[in-house]
Amino acid sequence: QVQVAESGGGLVQAGGSLRLSCTASGLTFDYYNMGWFRQAPGKEREGVSCIDWRGLTTYYADALKGRFTISRDNAKNTLYLQMNSLKPEDTAMYYCAASVPRSCVNRGVGYWGQGTQVTVSS
Fold first, then answer.
1. In DSSP terms, which residues pair with 35 in a beta bridge?
2. Which pLDDT tens digit goes with each residue over 58-105?
3. Are 19 and 82 in contact (CB under 8 A)?
């Protein structure tokens, strides 16, 4: 049984930082492209950042380039998202996903986590 679990969300002031982590079990982690998605109230789930199985190719949503950094440690079956210079508009539920498209779109994703809430106060 595949399980994907996020951690690290919370409440932070604008300009602050958070680091999200995601562990995946029940699958061969280093076979899969991984990604982070987010969904704000009333909005569709969108791709934030994705990384290929080797950790060599990354994708970022245009609005997030330079502020967010995705990485993975295949030895620990763990995916990370370092989020800096956070803004109130970054407030959303953040989801980790395994087996994601290279385009990092919210379609055809294999496995989802339950999500971790990130709230950025102004």
1. 50, 97
2. 999 998 989 999 999 999 999 999 999 999 999 999 999 999 998 899
3. yes
CB 73 within 8 A of CB 81: no
Cα–Cα distance, 111 to 74 (Å, whole number): 17
Give the Cα separation of 81 and 62 in Å (integer). Answer: 16
Predicted pLDDT at 88: 96
Name the pLDDT band for 34 (thresholds 50, 70, 90).
Answer: very high
Alpha carbon distance 57, 41 (integer Å): 30
Give me the pLDDT at residue 13, please.
Answer: 98
Under 8 Å CB-to-CB from 75, ≥6 apart: which residues?
A: none
* Adjacency order of strands within the sheet including 3-7: 3-7, 18-25, 78-83, 68-73
CB atoms within 10 A of CB 108: 9
